[in-house]
DNA sequence: GGCGATTTACTCGGATAAGCATTGTCCGAGTCAGAAGGG
DNA sequence: CCCTTCTGACTCGGACAATGCTTATCCGAGTAAATCGCC
């Protein structure tokens, strides 16, 4: 399991937002400055989190981002899948390889098991637990 | 767990080689023809498997590829790591993100656990089991 | 001074380039089988 | 007929492009606060 930059940014951005006491929205540039993340890129990632129902956004001068659900109801899996898409186990050249269907099914099963384990692992950890 | 094309080719190529009864080397073009894989690309992948001590190669007119160890001593993990490099759990922007060290360690732990599980999973399955 | 229209500064939002890994291709080095030729 | 030599075709091997995805950036749409003018 290797988390890409985008996903890593996403996790820590959500963490930062969840840690805010105030109910005011947190603005992108504040997160970017704190972690040294390129602002425009971060915004793009935050938008994906909004689409995936992890965050809510507000426009305008006092706008920003807020948690949609509470920190204890938001899991790391939610964040990761929002950015990378669903974690699914599959092999790439499924169509090219003809025959060897038995072996193919076994290998696909392995991938699925790995993906399933990873999903359950990430689902167990909430943002609340990350805060501590 | 998503296996790239190269890795998938590698698994089925090794499977094909292991299935050969004769002790003669199997030639690349035979595998490529059987599975519809681009020959030159397959050769490149097979070379990686040779470097990783999974296969042995022989040049010349009667050359080709053979298993280095027996099918029951060669695991899917050996093949996958030969092509993709070692399966390790890590986050990408480790340096960029400053602070939040507690959360960082937790997330890194998740990645390691996922990687460890996947490794053990792939290690359990030998090429012999794929043949059936 | 109070109220409202306007400006303005700031936000998010989606479309657009740059960098890098994966995938795919080409030509050269090496090696053995088999033909050619002489004994 | 048999052995040696040589040729040639076929192999793997490593260096060289094309493609696709991740990463990064830019400019436009939207919103509320602050400003300015009028009453």
Task: Name its key features.
homodimer, 132 residues, mainly alpha, Arc Repressor Mutant, subunit A, 4 strands, DNA-binding
Reconstruct the topology from this structure.
The structure is a homodimer of 132-residue chains.
Chain A: E1 2-3, H1 5-19, H2 28-35, H3 39-51, E2 55-58, E3 64-67, H4 76-84, E4 90-91, H5 101-124, H6 127-131
Antiparallel strand pairs in A: 2-3
Helix pairs in contact in A: 1-3, 1-4, 2-3
The structure holds a DNA duplex (39 and 39 nucleotides).
Fold and architecture overview:
The structure is a homodimer of 132-residue chains. By secondary structure, chain A is mainly alpha-helical. Chain A has a single domain, classed as Arc Repressor Mutant, subunit A, CATH 1.10.10. Chain A has 6 helices and 4 strands; from the N terminus they run E-H-H-H-E-E-H-E-H-H. Chain A has helices spanning 5-19, 28-35, 39-51, 76-84, 101-124, 127-131; strands at 2-3, 55-58, 64-67, 90-91. Chain A has a two-stranded antiparallel sheet with strand order 2-3. In chain A, a hairpin with a 5-residue loop joins strand 2 (55-58) and strand 3. In chain A, helix 1 crosses helix 3 (39-51), helix 1 packs across helix 4 (76-84) and helix 2 (28-35) crosses helix 3 (39-51). Chain A is elongated. Chain A starts with a strand and ends with a helix. The mean pLDDT of chain A is 91. At the A-B interface, strand 1, helix 1, strand 4, helix 5 and helix 6 of A face strand 1, helix 1, strand 4, helix 5 and helix 6 of B. The first copy, chain A, binds a DNA duplex (39 and 39 nucleotides) through helix 3.
